[in-house]
Structures are given as C-alpha cells and as structure tokens.
Amino acid sequence: MLEIISDPQSMRSEVLKARAAGHRIGFVPTMGALHAGHASLVARAVRECEAVAVSIFVNPTQFGPAEDFERYPRQLQADCQLLNEWKVRWVFAPEAAAIYPPGAATRVVVGGPAGCFEGEVRPGHFEGVATVVCRLFLAVPADAAYFGAKDWQQTLVVKRMVCDLGLAVDVVVCPTVREPDGLAMSSRNALLTPDERHRAVALFESLCCAERMWLAGFAVAGIEQAMREALQARSVSVDYAVVVAADSLEPYDASLAVSQSGAKALPVPVALVAGRVGSTRLIDNRVLPART
C-alpha cells in the first residue's frame, strides 16, 4: 500500500527500517507530472529492489528568475494514483520548508561537468540540483537512485557529487523514453501548444542527423553546424548543439584519450542539444555509436 510522507526524518526512518530488515531500496527523484519516462525508471527500480521510494518535489532553487517554476505542472494526486499502480511503497512529497528550513545557508557546488552548457545557460541551476539531490539522498538513504539519460549532464553532475562526497548510493542511468515521433518525454512537453509540439521534434531530428553524419565520417564542426540548422529550420531558438566526450563534456578530440599501454582509447561521443520552442525550453541527447 502506497504511503505518502512529507517529513524528511520520518522518510529516513522508514527507509532505514526497511534496509535493516534486509531489503534493497530503490529511489526515483522526480518533480512530478509523471509520464512514461518516469514509469520506466520506477519499473527498473521495482525489478531490482524490494521497496521503492519516489520523491515529488518541484525544487525552486534550480529555476532561474525568468524560468518556468510557476508554470511547471503539478498534479500530486494523479501522480500518487499512478505510483500506487506502479507498486511504489513510498512517496516522499515534502514542502519547500522541509528541504530548505528557515535560515538555510548551505549549498552544494559542483565543478567539473557542471560548468558548461546548462551550467552556462542557467547560472546556479546545478547548484540547486546538487543541493536538492544531496538533501533527498539524506532523507531517502536508498541503495540505488535512478535517473533518466535525457538529462545527461545532470547525471554526470550527480555522479560527481556522489563520488566527491562519498555518498553510499549507486547512481543508475536509464535510457531515454520517447514519443512515437522521437520527442523525448518530459513534463515540460505539456506546456507546448500544438504547433510548438510539432516543431519540438526538431531536437530529435537534429540528433538523428548527428548520428548519420558521425557514421559517415564527418568532422565534429560540420555535424554541429548541421544540428543547429536542423533546429533553426523548425524555428527552435538554439542554446547549444554540440558533440562532446560523453564522460567529461570536454570538446571531442580523439587525441586526448590514450590508454595506459599507449594505444589510443577513443572517448565515447555524445550529441547534446538544447533550445527554446516558444516559451518552453527543451533538452535532449544521443550517445553516438562507434565508427566502423
């Protein structure tokens, strides 16, 4: 039976009791407005763990002053009905004051993978992400936490934080779930008008273009230009369209990776895109396959 908990200490106590009983605990952090992408994360957690917690918290500190915090869809009751069907044991749905108590003055700042792309376009975003995820991990001390690959840079930031702070949780990254036309599932998709929804598929099309050109042997600069053109052709305002090393987000350069034996170990490339369709900002990515 699904249990809804709002108090962090109560949530922590429940999870620790379950772990003491020998149960493996899975955790899926979300901001609600659940869709099939979230369902895939929960399904994997349910397969791999005896009990699963899902958080629903729209985190104010990861939104900039001109971003869509107030517009972000909220549907707690409907989300809880879905989570009950998905065999989740706990929903952690705290109020903002429980996560950021009065006078809160501590923030988690991650360097490295947080410094580019989303970190540049949205100053302070990853500080907000790292802080809330750290706080959620303390409230839900699970064995494994499940994140979607759509937020590729975010997964690197969370992994870096977990490693640097020595947090005892496995970060599991799951494949992006897509609509039939390829658009990555996102709670923000609900904010798109019908025309904007039609144009938003340009993000997926630009990534498909990147993969085709990559396999055909094109240089990175040419691929990035073609990605931008694919987005602009659908009137998507481009924040970035790049091909970078998947594990570091550094510019893709095969000469940078050398194995201990001296032979080249080519980095895995990932294509990243971000842009605005109307007033809604969307991101997506695609790990590019090995060239033959």
What does this entry look like structurally?
By secondary structure, this protein is α/β, with parallel strands linked by helices. It contains 10 helices and 9 strands. The chain has helices spanning 8-20, 36-48, 76-85, 96-99, 118-121, 125-139, 152-165, 194-200, 202-215, 220-232, and strands at residues 3-5, 25-30, 51-56, 90-92, 144-148, 170-174, 237-245, 269-277, 280-287. The strands form 2 sheets. It has a 6-stranded parallel beta sheet, with helices on both faces. A 3-stranded antiparallel beta sheet has the order 7-8-9. A hairpin with a 2-residue loop joins strand 8 (269-277) and strand 9 (280-287). Helix 6 packs across helix 7 and helix 9 runs antiparallel to helix 10 (220-232). It is globular, with a radius of gyration of 20 Å.
CATH architecture of the largest domain: 3-Layer(aba) Sandwich
Tally of DSSP helical segments: 10
Radius of gyration of CA atoms, rounded to a whole number: 20 Å
Task: Give the distance, in angstroms, between the N- and C-terminal Cα atoms.
Answer: 51 Å
- Globally, the shape reads globular
What is the percent of helical residues? 25-40%
Oligomeric state of the chains in view: single chain
